[in-house]
Amino acid sequence: MHAASRTTLDQLTESLDGALSGATDTAAAGAATGSELFEVADLLDSDRSLRTALVDQTVPADRRAALADGLLAGKVSDTTRETVSQVVKGTWSNTRDLRHGLVELGRRALLRAAHEQGHREKVATELFDVARLLEREPELEMLLADRLASGEKRRELLAKVLYGHVSAITEALALQVVGRPVARPVEDLDALCDFAAGLDGRRVARVRSAAALSEAQEQALGQKLEKIYGSAMSVHSEVDTSLLGGAVIRVGDEVIDGSTAGKLERMRRALV
Fold first, then answer.
1. In the UniProt record, which is one GO cellular component term (predicted)?
2. What is the model's pTM?
């Protein structure tokens, strides 16, 4: 995202947080606003002339806002209408940044709702688990990554897989990811996990271990990683018996391989 667009988005983030905090029911307002902002982003994806008009800096900001307001009147909540009005009044470098900004604000609103409901960790864990599911099912990920299929078709497929297994907020976030992809579905879901953790000033540690980690072990590992990286950590773990023992930890692009399989491989290479 270009610098001008990022400045606009930072300002909008503060405004959105203020609007949600002032709502009578922050959780309900966040859930509704997040879903509706995704719908607005979808509308702009499908209408090139509209998104061009809304980002045109030669048109007065109030006129751009009036255009958006006319389209959304009676169709979305007041918080969403006001947010979109502020969005289109802002300075965006291009239409892509505008749509990306709407999506990021939608994600933030939904994650705020999860926090208010006491489900922040649950949603983060479910997003991690969905990403790992797609890693284990490459044919499913391939179908979800098919750009020739419509976003609606990809969402319908994932919705069938997730039905009854995740919370409504997790489902809304995951469906948005596959409906408007940036990279591979797994990569986009992992990026969303990072975004969710970042809202709480945390980084994500992805752990593959030969045996399941207990809650106490996850907490102890998180504390050790916090000392190493100087940041609070969200630890997400999965079992990988092929490691034979130990664990592999990934934080960002850095990998710490303390697995038995990794040690054996390093020994094999040393002997060649």
1. plasma membrane
2. 0.85
